[in-house]
Design a protein that fits this description.
- The protein has about 190 residues and is mainly alpha-helical.
- The protein folds into two domains: about 120 residues, no CATH class; about 45 residues, no CATH class.
- Helix content is about 65%, strand content about 5%.
- It contains eight helices and two strands; from the N terminus they run H-H-E-H-H-E-H-H-H-H.
- It has a two-stranded antiparallel ribbon.
- The protein is elongated.
Length: about 190
Amino acid sequence: MESLMVPLTALIVPSLLCAVLVFIGSSIIHMVLKYHASDYSQIPNEDAVRAAMRAGNPAPKKYIVPWCPDMKAMQSEEMKRKFEEGPNAIIYLGKPGMPTMGPTFVQWFVFTFVISLVVGYLCAAVLPRGTSYLKVFQVAGTAGWLAYGGAAVIPSIWMRKPWAVTWKDVFDALIYGLLTAGTYGWLWPR
């Protein structure tokens, strides 16, 4: 009698295909549809801000302005004044130099492959061989959407990321989840 369990090795090809489709989907979203182009704006005095930042010679990392080391300091009159005056910002600085997309694309592809493997693992844990396309689609799509979009909300809650940008990210995650769902539904072991 053949086992109804899905072996993890049966998930490698579907996971790779999911990763490829999500990678292509994200490329279409960002390079063809370009609805994320409005997510970023130029600061009005960019050259002065860049010069001031260069003068401080900050290392590539995450910064917060104004810097407040703890809740006690948050209560000081000086800190309250700084927050009231603004600007209030969270800044990610990279190392100087022309950005290269190659390493970013590789990291994104590896991430999509890992997400696909984890979604496949979850499906294999709850769905036997021969599960209908729609049931696999439902489980894989839900897991994929949560995996790609769940964390997108956190920066809007805690770091002042504009909600309009977050909703676009959550919509992208839905597309990635649907691509993952369709792929697993199609290639689910029978």
